[in-house]
Specification:
There is one protein chain. This protein is of the alpha/beta class and 314 residues long. The chain has 2 domains: 9-230, Rossmann fold, CATH 3.40.50.10490; 247-313, Helicase, Ruva Protein, domain 3 (Orthogonal Bundle), CATH 1.10.8. Helix content is 53%, strand content 8%. The chain is built from 15 helices and 5 strands. The chain has helices at residues 6-16, 38-49, 52-57, 60-74, 86-103, 119-122, 132-141, 160-171, 186-189, 211-230, 247-261, 265-274, 279-288, 292-301, 306-313; strands spanning 80-84, 110-114, 149-153, 175-180, 193-196. Strands 2-1-3-4-5 form a 5-stranded parallel β-sheet, sandwiched between helices. α5 runs parallel beside α10 and α12 packs across α13. The longest helix is centred in the C-terminal third of the chain and has 20 residues, at 211-230. It is globular, with a radius of gyration of 22 Å.
Length: 314
């Protein structure tokens, strides 16, 4: 019998399989990074990054299906939850944290879980990724249910913390998505939608904060942004649910209202004052002639979709 704890054994199993992973491979054994000039290194990295969008494109059908299924649940009140470790976890937390200020949502609509907890966002807690039980416990802590979507993020596609999180989410009836940068991964096999982005070897061998990190951020941008657009958080190309909570956002709200309606700055400001500085509500008021309470009720009845209100009453 092994003397290793279950958590440690899981981590060693992953370590033993690193040689099989494209993201851990050495791209060019003859390439001497430490002998290159700054200009050469910058060009090399830029050339490498130029291939990432193509790798993401290969997975667009799977990405599309996963986001569509997520939106169906979010329309019924479900949440989008990211779970990852290390760089993958930090990227999930970053994407989740940008949704409230951009789209005016509550802080619990898109949530980021990271192995090791909040401390791991700024400090390395590498051993935390070795425990599937901790991933399951973190999902339990959020009370995940059938309307929720849990996106497990792991460049390797085999991180125990992430596998534990998606397994527990599946038991709770949630939609599960796996996002990895290797092919035929355990994470894909364990989830409803397995998104695999074959980015290949990193310039610095095994440093998946590079190409894999870029690919991951691109996909997470799609998840959060497309979901919010589908939920009515934008109008045209404008983030109309933004809340003007500082000077920059006040200027942005005025610009959004003027662009959407064609009114001048003074009219936009006056209407925003009446709308408690909610750009969507101000646009609805100007476009329909309704007062703030009437426009608010119309938006509520339309599920927050500004276009529907304007087309019906404008």
């Amino acid at each position: 019998m092994s003397d290793e704890t279950p958590e440690r054994s899981e981590g060693l199993d992953e370590l033993a399989g690193l040689d099989e992973l494209a993201t851990e491979a050495v791209d060019d054994r003859g390439l001497m990074l430490d002998e290159l000039t700054v200009a050469d290194l910058v060009e090399l990295m830029n050339d490498r990054d130029a291939t990432i969008a193509g790798a993401v494109r290969t997975a667009l059908p799977t990405i599309t299906a996963a986001i569509a299924a997520t939106v169906e649940r979010m329309r019924e009140g479900g949440r989008l939850i990211y779970a990852g470790a290390g760089t993958s976890g930090r990227l999930g937390v970053l994407d989740a944290s940008e949704v409230p200020p951009t789209f005016g949502t509550a802080g619990d609509v898109v949530v980021g879980l990271i192995a090791g907890g909040p401390r791991a966002i700024v400090s390395s807690v590498e051993s935390a990724e070795d425990s599937a039980q901790t991933g399951a416990a973190d999902v339990d802590g959020l009370g995940v249910g059938p309307l929720d979507t849990v996106v497990g993020i792991a460049s390797s596609g085999r991180t125990p913390y992430v596998l534990g999180a998606v397994a527990r989410a599946a038991e709770a009836g949630a939609l599960t998505v796996g996002l990895s940068c290797n092919l035929d991964t355990p994470l894909s096999a364990a989830t409803d939608h397995g998104i695999e982005i074959p980015v290949g070897p990193e310039i610095v061998a095994g440093s998946t904060r590079l190409g894999a990190g870029t690919a991951t951020k691109m996909v997470l941008n799609m998840f959060s942004t497309v979901s919010m657009v589908q939920l009515g958080k934008t109008y045209q190309t404008l983030m109309v649910d933004v809340r003007a909570t500082n000077a920059k956002l006040v200027r942005r709200a005025v610009r959004i209202v003027t662009l959407a309606t064609g009114v001048d700055d003074d009219t936009a400001r006056q209407t925003l004052d009446a709308a408690d500085w909610h750009a969507k509500l101000a646009i609805a008021m100007i476009s329909t002639g309704l007062d703030a309470d009437e426009a608010r009720r119309a938006l509520d009845a339309a599920g927050g979709r500004l276009r529907a209100v304007i087309e019906e009453r404008g």
